[in-house]
């Protein structure tokens, strides 16, 4: 049982975590923290948090677990305020989609308390954002990746591992660098492609008709282009090098498709699409 | 009431049309035609067709309406056999995702019967294919685009317009060229991007982990990469020029994202993603 949980940033991710833990009977008091008082009031109204603080240091001071669920670009501001306010027993985790930049911030801000910090990333979400978007089952059968350092306290890891399992998630361990490389491919790159596609189409002359004739496939394909722009701006800044390399490589892959079309190479096109289909079909069984 | 409907190619699209018309009580006898006898037997077993023929000319000979629902690359073979076999009253339509190539084939094969042909494209589908994938509600609230020529018989247009309305679809009229340009952007390009993404990721060293950590967003984004490779091979051959131009332009759009990441231009990234999000959010209300 977590007696007192502090959620810094009560949006889709932080709010859903609070709801899931409450539903599991795994938490006593949840204190929310954020800069938007109206949103925090909404969190109380929706039963997501039990109280709130505007100041991070007030929110975390008696907490057993502190979950930092703010965009990557706001991590430093939050960690600076956590450092001097938590107890020796408190465990801190985060939910950032890129881990190297958060670990760097945590090491700088937490000093000799850095062992209390367990870097984490729940691989779950929707294209919606904000406190109203939260729901208790978001993490059911989803993966949470933890990327502890050599210096991370073993008890702290176990605490965060257990917290996420109580939300229905399974836990995986990766190194910080490996996480950032894999997620750049599986999550960050697709978001860039979707954002670029919607922008590209919206700039065409036939813009209105294009969206008019959009099919269900198009709607699914571009769903992630409705994701929170602030979050993704920060992912790009935090994991830019990995992402830039992948975008360039992806363009080469597109060139292969173009070459096959240009050459009217029916056999090659069938090979390209057949390979993608079988990879994707086998994936559906796995996730 | 359509007394006798011939469906050439009883897959997802043709099969769903038959089911929808049967459910609406709008058709008497449905004769299926295809090269795979087992699949046609399955169509009868599932109540999708009432009888079948292996020969196209046998299938169409007493039909009131002939629907050609084969991949674009098989259109010529089918239209060649239709030409001499149909009655003067029969109306022919197709469901091809690109229209110029079908119209060209129809003009060559049908000769002075070309006025009986109404080129069509139901903007509906799933990533599944084959007769078992058909379902009666596929066209409910979907758009069907008809691209008649100046020479197309007005009565024939009305017949096909009514047929699709009875399936729950709304009908739009576009010129052949306009259709192919708009659909290249809204459908053909996204399919290429999805196929290329899956192929790209499957070629990376971290392949297994990438698919392991794939989130729901990734699954949605790549759904269309499970689409029928033969169909998409033929779309690429049929509408290659429009598609090639769009792929090149899309790469330029990606370069804008890369430049903003490279320059760590937070303002520009927020603008790019914010614009895409608002375009996409407004789209969801429209389709």
Protein described:
The longest helix of chain A is centred in the middle third of the chain and has 27 residues, at 176-202. Chain A has 287 residues and is an alpha/beta fold. Chain A has two domains: 2-174, Rossmann fold (3-Layer(aba) Sandwich), CATH 3.40.50; 178-284, 6-phosphogluconate dehydrogenase C-terminal like domain (6-phosphogluconate dehydrogenase C-terminal fold, Orthogonal Bundle), CATH 1.10.3660.10. In chain A, 52% of the residues lie in helices and 14% in strands. Chain A is elongated, with a radius of gyration of 21 Å. Chain A has a six-stranded parallel β-sheet, sandwiched between helices. In chain A, strands 7-8-9 form a three-stranded mixed β-sheet, with helices on one face. Chain A is built from twelve helices and nine strands.
Can I get a quick summary?
The structure is a homodimer of 287-residue chains. With 287 residues, chain A is α/β, with parallel strands linked by helices.
* Topology-level CATH name of the largest domain in chain A: Rossmann fold
Q: Structural class, judged by helices and strands of chain A? A: alpha/beta
Tell how many strands the DSSP assignment of chain A holds.
9
Largest sheet of chain A: 6 strands, parallel
Q: What general form of chain A does the structure show?
A: elongated
Write the layout of secondary structure elements.
The structure is a homodimer of 287-residue chains.
Chain A: E1 2-8, H1 12-23, E2 27-33, H2 37-45, E3 51-53, H3 56-60, E4 65-68, H4 75-83, E5 91-94, H5 100-110, E6 117-118, E7 120-123, E8 143-146, H6 154-165, E9 170-173, H7 176-202, H8 207-212, H9 216-221, H10 229-238, H11 240-262, H12 266-284
Parallel strand pairs in A: 1-2, 1-4, 2-3, 4-5, 5-6, 8-9
Antiparallel strand pairs in A: 7-8
Helix pairs in contact in A: 4-5, 7-11
